[in-house]
Amino acid sequence: MTKRQTRKQQQRHQQRTQRQAERQGHDQHTDLPAPQESGDTVLHVAGASPYDVVVGHGLSERLPAVLGESVERVAVLYAGTLGELADPVVDALVEHYDVLALGLPDGERAKTAPVASDCWEALGEAGFTRSDAVVTIGGGATTDLGGFVAATWLRGVRVVHVPTTLLAMVDAAVGGKTGINTGSGKNLVGSFHEPAGVLCDLALLESLPRAELVAGLGEVVKCGFIADPAILDVVERTDPADLTWDSDELRELVERAIRVKVDVVVDDLRETGGAGGHPGREVLNYGHTLAHAIERTSDYAVRHGEAVAIGCVYVAELAARAGSLDPALVERHRATLSRVGLPTTYDAASFDDLHAAMRIDKKARGSQLRFVVLDDLATPRILAGPGEDDLRAAYAAIASAG
Description:
The protein has two domains: 3-205, Rossmann fold (3-Layer(aba) Sandwich), CATH 3.40.50; 210-399, Up-down Bundle (Dehydroquinate synthase-like, alpha domain). 41% of the residues lie in helices and 18% in strands.
């Protein structure tokens, strides 16, 4: 269930009129501004619905520029345990809009049909129209659920993501995929709905538990293997203890990982396939087929980034057995991921249970499993219908700690 709270700024209409008068003659363009002296980095996402991803510190003040003057009401969907972390964002909004704050359950418990329905009912009761907007504050589950609510309310309203975890910054908040889980699997219900903007405020990572920061590095390292080996170089030369919210190294990793995703999404938003044999957007699923199976069979006790790390080693082993990947690169998967504290082995479920879960993954085609594998660094392809013997052997390799 969601927790509802309505905040209204006194004399909102008078203040709106005053702001409009003050801005007469100025550019009313609602895109995020270009980088300024603050040092913020602006990454533009081109396409049919272009938007910007901003990486920096103290980005709340940018929200009104992204949302625009036509918006009157903003629903803020936030992870319920954020507490005071969400307050600066809400405070920045109540100066300009009527704000409906909706607290969500934590983690994957937010990504359910009943929670989405609660949000729809709250929007209806508050009279939200197509000119109003949604802002999400939280991790990947919050951006997934909030994006889905925005995509489905009145067939689509504006949404701006303010991710508060490393995982959400480099993955869930960028790219326009939204979704909820069902009893059968993860993200099986959803839609494509690109945000109006994404604000990656690195200062929000200061209070993030170390285990969550490390988990987010699973998606970062994945991007290094599939597209940008410079990410691996940064990880391998940096003391893991120095990868902190305020470090230059972490900022470089965040920006590089976002660039990887942006480049892929611009070319293949709806995952229909890339050119020249490239998997297109499907490349971002590297390691995810097993990862989603691990998450489901563990009832989401394993963090997404941790499961992705295990899944990346699994598909590396699978590619080696298919004869396409050098064993040295398989070992580099293990070494790089384990260096930052991510798991590279898993034996908490049987192969048969995981295999059954993989078969209902949304990347499967009919009865055929599909995996993104590598022929070399940044050289991905699709491996369709691998033999069960190879699937079992690859799992045996990651189930062993040796």
